[in-house]
Each structure stands twice: as C-alpha cells, then as structure tokens.
Write a structure and sequence with these properties.
Layout lengths: L2 H24 L2 H19 L5 H50 L3 H28 L12 H10 L1 E2 L2 H7 L7 E3 L4 E3 H9 L4 E9 L2 E8 L5 E5 L4 E5 L15 H24 L4 H14 L11 H12 L5
Parallel strand pairs: 1-4, 3-7
Antiparallel strand pairs: 2-3, 4-5, 5-6, 6-7
C-alpha cells in the first residue's frame, strides 16, 4: 500500500470519527446510519487495494465533509439558542428570588388581619360613643392605616375605576358625619346590634385608591372602610362583578408561580433545542443515505455532485 493510499485512508478515518461524534451529539438515527454506511465504504476501500482510492477521497469531499460542516453549523446555531435560554433562565431565577424576598408571608398577613380587625372594631365602638356624645374625640386606633400601606400592593384585589366608584359612592343623607369619620346610619345600627363583631375580609385597590372590606362574624353582611377619607359604607359582593373571592393567592405569588412554570419549561426545552435539526435537512440526509446505500454507488459516484451542491447551498443559507 503506497503513501497516497495510506494518506487517504487516514483522512477518511478522521472524517468518519467526526461524523461519529456528531451522530452521538444529535442522537438522530439517520446520522448514525450515515456514519455506519460511511464506515462500510471506508472498509471496502481499505480491504480492496484494487479499488480506485481517489474515489474514497471524492466520496468524502462531495458528501461527508459537507454533511459534517452542515451539522457543525447547526450545532453552533443551536448552542447560541441554548445560551440565550440559559441567560433567560438565570435572569428569571434572580427575579424569582427577588420577588420571593419581597413577598410578605401569608403567616404575617393573616396575623395582621386579626390585629387590624380588632383595631377597626375598637375604632367603630369609639366612633359610636363619639357620635352618641357629640364629642370631638378622635375615634380611630393608632396606626390604623398602616395595614393597607403594608399589604395593599401584594394582597389586595385590583378593581377598575368604575367598580371602585360604585364601592365608595356616598349618599350624605344616609350618613352620620362628624369631623373625624362618616358612617352609614343603618350600618352603625347593625354594628351595635351585633356588638361590633367583624373580621377583615379582603382589600380592594384601584390606582392609589384603597378600600378595606369587613364581614360581620354573625351575619352574612359586609361593609367597606375607605382609609383616606375615614368612611364606612355597606358593601355588596355583587358591587364588584367577576371577582373570584375564593382565590387567596396574592398577585405577586401568581407572578412567581407563572415565572417558575415558564423557567421550568425553558430548562426542559434545552436538550431538544441543543440537538434540533430542521426537517428539510433531515429529509436531505435521508436522500443522501439512500444514495450511499446503493450497492452500485461507486459506479454513480459522480452523481453526488448535485446532492453535494444542495448540501453546500444549505451551508450558505441564513437559517442558522
């Protein structure tokens, strides 16, 4: 075997090794079949010195090299896409941690709801006394507005302007009014009847406007407290259409859950993105495999020119 023969066989083995690595990376059956068939072709020339060794070189130049270059280009493009996914996943995880650190715990919220209910009930008792005695005393408990200031952003329901206007609509003729607060007359009567036993139900917000909603413990009735104006009004759940009152998950927690779901989907897609091959290229590889599987392929080796040109054209596209 002369040096020319040995050199071509050496180059052939190198090309086939490269093709094997790519077949393992992509995990596509058609690439593995092409690799196996290329090995058979190589063995054919290695074991038959009478065959024109230049045809093996021609085979690799026209076919194998173009396939390898095309697959490498796809691999490089996929790696860029995967890098973008990793960047997005990393940013999402940072954002999730920041959002988690900023979310007040449900435990603290539920505990403070009870404290706020107690403050409101004591303030309403005091307001009743002030109104009864026509006193100028300030009826509200200390820091009564701090609850909404602390929790409204993350825990209060969003309502539109029209809904909020309906909730805080006041008829002065139906109100007890003094310098400190205003309350519907019938609401005060009901509160007295049920001994001011109420609990915090939920909060509503619309822009900068905030309303706290309370429920009677012994009655299926509700009232609202408008902190910025110290106004108490009856509240009907039907005043806010389409609200899912049973949904206790906060807005920020919803965002966190959605972001976690999105991030999980991105991470699970990485392997598929890394090894994705466009269908038209898979079809082309299938056609080439059929050609090199032909028992008489050596007699038609020159016919690879057309197929090789298609592969090379793929390399020049902007698909990657």
């Amino acid at each position: 075997m002369d040096e020319h023969h040995k050199d071509i066989l050496k180059v052939s083995r190198t090309e086939i090794s490269r093709l094997q690595l790519l077949s393992v990376f992509f995990g596509e059956e058609i690439i593995y079949k092409i690799f196996l068939r290329s090995q058979v072709i190589h063995q054919l020339f290695q074991n038959n010195s009478d065959l024109d060794i230049d045809k093996l070189e021609l085979f690799h130049v026209q076919f194998t090299s173009s396939v390898i270059e095309l697959l490498r280009k796809i691999k490089k493009s996929n790696e860029k896409n995967v890098s973008l996914i990793y960047d997005e996943v990393s940013l999402n995880k940072e954002l999730i941690e920041k959002m988690k650190s900023g979310v007040l715990t449900d435990k603290a919220y539920n505990l403070d709801k009870k404290k706020q209910s107690l403050k409101i009930n004591l303030s309403l008792r005091k307001l009743f006394q002030v109104l009864s005695e026509d006193s100028t005393d300030f009826p509200f408990a200390k820091n009564i507005n701090s609850f909404s200031s602390r929790y409204s952003r993350d825990y209060y329901y969003d309502v539109n302007t029209e809904q909020m206007s309906k909730v805080i609509d006041v008829d002065p003729a139906q109100m007890y009014i003094n310098a400190s607060a205003s309350i519907e007359r019938k609401l005060m009567g009901l509160l007295c009847k049920y001994d001011f036993r109420t609990e915090f139900f939920c909060g509503l917000k619309s822009g900068q406007m905030i309303v706290e909603v309370y429920k009677f413990l012994d009655l299926d009735r509700y009232f609202s407290f408008f902190p910025s104006r110290n106004v108490f009004l009856f509240f009907e759940l039907s005043d806010v259409d389409g609200m899912e009152w049973t949904n206790n998950v906060t807005e920020k927690e919803n965002h966190i859950q959605e972001l976690i779901y999105k991030t999980d989907k991105l991470e699970s897609s990485i392997d598929a993105v890394k090894t994705a091959i466009p269908k038209d290229i898979l079809d082309l590889l299938e056609e080439n495999y059929i050609k090199i599987s032909d028992m008489n392929f050596l007699d038609h080796l020159n016919n690879f020119d057309v197929q090789a040109n298609i592969l090379k054209a793929m390399l020049k596209t902007d698909l990657f």
